[in-house]
Amino acid sequence: MKKHLNTLFVTTQGAYLAKDGETVAVRIDGGVALRVPLHTLASIVCFGNVGCSPFLMGFCGERDVGLSFLTENGRFLARVQGPVSGNVLLRREQYRRADDPAFSAAVAGACVLGKVANSRTVLLRALRDHGDKVDAPALQEGIDRLGAAIRRLQGELALDEVRGVEGDAARVYFNTFDHLIIRDKDHFFMRRRSRRPPLDRINCLLSFLYTLVVNDMRSALESVGLDPAVGYLHRDRPGRAGLALDLMEEFRPMADRLALSLVNLGQLQQGDFAVSDGGAVRMSDTARKTLLVAYQKRKQEEMVHPFLEERMSLGLFFHTQALLFARYLRDELDGYPPVIWK
């Protein structure tokens, strides 16, 4: 099993990363603010105006350390990658299977099943833990409708039918999401899902977290030799990591729960966000750092993998799911087993 390593998040604007022996040196205002041994890192993620030396880029490529560049708000810009790893036969099989409608529908169905089941668990936990503070009938209705979606996904559906179920389930879930927010409802609320740009604080949090999740999934897929761009639920589109988006679906509710915890526990507050004249919402540097620390801690928590029945850190689940998908492509598994939280 691959060792779970850390991710270095660099958010200070104007920072410059350089190779210093076997370490990454983070330089700010002409001085070295931090040195991190590269062997302790799985990836480096830079937000906004952060520079990097070509020597460090090459070093990361040689050591298989992912180096990604995002905007301050978390939109993916680019990724530096070393030589493509893995078996070319595996990637060729991935490409062939993407042209098979039945196989694509099966993969899409499994990914959406994981997403819907885990979304339902988020509602169940809210009802259990905060039943006296939430609209219990509304949550129960959402739970029942998501349960119906799960039953439908367990049948054989065409790809368009899977997408239809996913769309309906997402509407049910996000129409219920506002009931899960129990603190400072005047400033934290979910009226509808908005992305580019996010139009409220909750959507801002979710969009940022989803970017972190898809970046981790993309790194995991590359590490086992799969092409993150060729998906099954998310079809080919220039610049889109289709397979990473497919396999991240089951992890979206994990990000949702983290966003809710940060708000409901008061770790993020109204003043941590700025609203532009056009309505777009942005996080402050302080809020971004709070979120990144919480995300890193969440990935270090240990859980039992429901399929392998092995205890591991949550951060390793991304790599494990990539390995399981590779086994599915090799016909070593009868189907792709999504992570379904309990």
Topology (elements, then pairings):
Layout: E1 6-10, E2 16-20, E3 23-28, E4 31-37, E5 41-47, E6 51-52, H1 54-62, E7 66-70, E8 76-80, H2 88-98, H3 101-129, H4 136-153, H5 159-177, H6 201-223, H7 242-248, H8 252-264, E9 273-275, E10 281-283, H9 285-300, E11 302-304, E12 311-313, H10 316-329
Parallel strand pairs: 1-5, 2-6, 5-7
Antiparallel strand pairs: 2-3, 3-4, 7-8, 9-10, 11-12
Helix pairs in contact: 3-4, 3-5, 3-8, 4-5, 6-7, 6-8, 6-10, 8-9
Structure commentary:
The chain has 342 residues and is α/β, with parallel strands linked by helices. It starts with 5 loop residues before the first strand and ends in a 13-residue tail after the last helix. The strands form four sheets. Strands 1-5-7-8 form a four-stranded mixed sheet. The protein has a four-stranded mixed sheet with strand order 4-3-2-6. The chain is 46% helix and 16% strand. The protein has two domains: 6-80, Ribosomal Protein L15, Chain: K, domain 2; 88-329, CRISPR-associated endonuclease Cas1, C-terminal domain (Four Helix Bundle (Hemerythrin (Met), subunit A), Up-down Bundle), CATH 1.20.120.920. It has helices at residues 54-62, 88-98, 101-129, 136-153, 159-177, 201-223, 242-248, 252-264, 285-300, 316-329, and strands at residues 6-10, 16-20, 23-28, 31-37, 41-47, 51-52, 66-70, 76-80, 273-275, 281-283, 302-304, 311-313. The protein has ten helices and twelve strands. A hairpin with a 5-residue loop joins strand 7 and strand 8. Helix 4 packs antiparallel against helix 5.
